Predict the 3D structure of the following.
Amino acid sequence: MIRLFVGLAIPESIVDQLDRLTGSMPGARWVEPENFHITLRFIGEVDEMDAEDLHHELLRVRAPRFSLTLKGVDAFGQGHKTRALWAGVDKSESLNLLRGRVDAAVVRAGQPPEQRKFVPHVTLARFTQAPAEHIQSFIEGYGLFRAGPFEVDYFVLFESEMGNGGSAYTVLQEYPLDPSP
């Protein structure tokens, strides 16, 4: 069994800007910069045959290239129940279009439809015991964060391997987007 998700890789120049946001905060497990990404669709554990079906359906996805800008920071959860700190993505109809087409491909490959609302973001840190005052201070201090725009000309099928220090992501396949008209 392999654990998969579909996402967008982040260009190195944007990774550097995101990495400058990270630091020390009690209880925070900061994401390694090489693992920064935007998840389009989490898939979970599948066998090799299902992975091959996913690959073939993702090859059929057609969407135009587009630009994205990262904007602001926020968190999932509140107070001591905060689970993750993240950088947001500015609204993008092109991103929503791509996400919808990727989700449809995953469903055609036999996986269940996504039930969660799509909130595009780059996870910066995860928490088990969240220090509410530090998280609120971080959000207030970096609320005006902006990075980009950057070009999105492909999406990626990633493998996620769980380890002691968190997950490690491996690019299994890149899928090009269509040149803009």
